[in-house]
Amino acid sequence: MGHRIHIIGVPMDLGQRRRGVDMGPSVIRYAGLHQALRALGHHVTDSGNLPVPLPENVPLDSERARHLQSIAGVCREIYDAAHDINQRGEIALFLGGDHSLSIGTVSAITAQADSVGVLWVDAHGDFNTPEITPSGNVHGMALAALMGLGAPELTDIGRPGAKLSPAQVVILGARDLDPLEKLALRAHGLRVLTMRDVDERGIAAMTHIALAHLQACQRIHVSLDMDALDPAEAPGVGTPVPGGLSYREAHLLMEILHDSGKVTSLDIVEINPILDERNRTAKLAVELTASLFGKTIF
Fold it and tell me: What is the pLDDT of residues 146-171, one digit of tens each?
């Protein structure tokens, strides 16, 4: 039996300096997202895109947290939309846009009484704060904000303070962590499964380790940054890093997550079609989404 999946686009590139990820929602849809999900028997509703201001039209705020107020405003809109979807028992699928949108989605998804785990599939830790950031880019602060660290404009989306505990989070695919970010991740006890872990033990083992860490959680939210994949597979991302997940590793990850029966929401972020090759990265995002929601080889 299919699920009711509700899609909302967030064409935001306020969280980084490189323009282009605001076109992500359009290219994912163009790559056949609706058709792929409906072919699996799911009922799909698409509410279009949330309004997002252009970087040129809003204040910079601070070099320590660029466009902070504008990003917080968009995340509050995301929170309201995600909360409504959650209340109706639908699966929320948010299309980015940069990864700062996850501050809104995860804050809403975790507002329910039952426990929600988050699998943060990303080349980066996104665990900076305005005090330690080397760039001032808010998309690199999203997970820290969800842990209650950093600017209150971000930590207090929906409700004050931390939305997640270390027991509710696993980062998978990390391979580019800033020096002070590494210290912060260790200090707060985050479970980080790096690409070395994947290389040594395989993606199947790492996925099962992630699920074991989140076993007390009744539901899982997947926050998929497409830069988790190797640039040879996904060239159209805002911050590419060599040595990422292969095509089959990414699909197996999604297939095992589907088998768990726990995934009830998803972010797809950081696709930049300006840097892509014939929409390869968006097409791959659609294929991975299909695997997450039930497409199998046999």
Answer: 999 999 999 999 999 999 999 999 99
Residue 200 designated active-site: no
* Residue 188 bears catalytic tag: no
Q: Which two tokens stand for residue 177?
A: 């962590």
**Among this protein's residues, is 122 annotated catalytic?**
yes
CA distances from 44 to 33, 151, 242, 271, 295 (A): 10, 36, 34, 22, 16
User: Catalytic site residue 258?
Assistant: no
Beta bridge partners of 191: 170
* Token pair 């209650």 in the structure block, residue: 148
Residue 8 CA to chain centroid, in angstroms?
14
The tens digit of pLDDT for each residue in 244-260 reads: 999 999 999 999 999 99
Q: Is 56 exposed, middle or buried (0-12, 13-18, 19+ CB in 10 A)?
A: exposed
Which one of 176, 225, 230, 249 is the catalytic residue?
Answer: 225
pTM reported for the whole predicted model = 0.97
Q: What is the 3-state secondary structure (H, E, C) of 6-65?
A: EEEEECCCCCCCCCCHHHHHHHHHHCCHHHHHHHCCCEEEEEEECCCCCHHHCCCCCCCC
Radius of gyration of the chain (CA): 17
Q: Is 225 a catalytic residue?
A: yes
In this predicted model, what pLDDT tens digit does every residue of 56-88 receive, in sequence order?
999 898 899 999 999 999 999 999 999 999 999
Instruction: Check 61, 126, 255, 287 and give the catalytic one.
Output: 126
